[in-house]
């Protein structure tokens, strides 16, 4: 054999060895790194909304169920009524009749006044609040009324939905 044939044969053998040495596996490390970087990015940039919650006391099954009428509840409670037109009506045992509050800000100031919060002092007025929302009222107005009770640290808040003719 000639030297050229030996070289060609040797090159073919080396090429076959190189072809066999190539890995068919894909390196996953960069993909895992990118995945974790994206995860960290979205965790940092996500806007977390603070959830406000009202504490609901557990039901004591040993006590008999005491049924109270709406009139009984209204006697010693601040009442926020939301009509079907989303207008607030705020009532207090200290007042003779309900007062109209067409905006959320006015409702909040009337609730603060009904609680006895002149000058930032709370606690002189009723300690219970009843929110009566019409079935056609928008949800955001009911939430605003409940938030008004939470803002003045009302210890007991009740919520009810009524339809035309119920009250």
Automatic annotation (TrEMBL):
Record InterPro entries: ExbD
Keyword terms of this UniProt record: Cell membrane, Membrane, Protein transport, Transmembrane, Transmembrane helix, Transport
GO-annotated molecular function: transmembrane transporter activity
Subcellular compartments: Cell membrane
Bilayer-spanning residue ranges: 31-50
One Pfam match: ExbD
Segments for region (Disordered): 1-20
Membrane topology field: Single-pass membrane protein; Single-pass type II membrane protein
Gene Ontology BP annotations: protein transport
Main location: membrane
Signal peptide residue numbers: none
Listed GO CC annotations: plasma membrane
Basic and acidic residues bias: start-end ranges: 9-20
Family to which the UniProt record says this protein belongs: Belongs to the ExbD/TolR family.
Name by which UniProt lists this protein: Biopolymer transport protein ExbD/TolR
Organism, as annotated: Posidoniimonas polymericola
Higher taxonomy: Bacteria, Pseudomonadati, Planctomycetota, Planctomycetia, Pirellulales
């Amino acid at each position: 054999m000639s030297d050229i044939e030996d070289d060609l044969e040797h090159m073919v053998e080396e090429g076959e060895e190189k072809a066999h040495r190539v890995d068919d596996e894909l390196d996953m490390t960069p993909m895992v790194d990118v995945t974790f970087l994206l995860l960290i990015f979205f965790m940092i940039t996500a806007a977390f909304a603070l959830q406000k919650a009202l504490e609901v006391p557990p039901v004591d099954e040993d006590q008999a169920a005491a049924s109270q009428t709406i009139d009984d509840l209204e006697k010693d409670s601040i009442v926020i009524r939301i009509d079907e037109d989303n207008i607030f009506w705020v009532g207090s045992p200290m007042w003779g009749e309900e007062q109209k509050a067409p905006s959320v800000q006015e409702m909040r100031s009337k609730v603060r006044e009904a609680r006895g919060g002149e000058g930032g002092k709370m606690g002189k007025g009723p300690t219970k609040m009843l929110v009566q929302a019409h079935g056609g009222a928008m949800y955001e107005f009911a939430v605003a009324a409940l938030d008004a009770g939470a803002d003045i640290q009302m210890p007991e808040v009740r919520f009810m939905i009524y339809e035309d003719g119920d009250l």
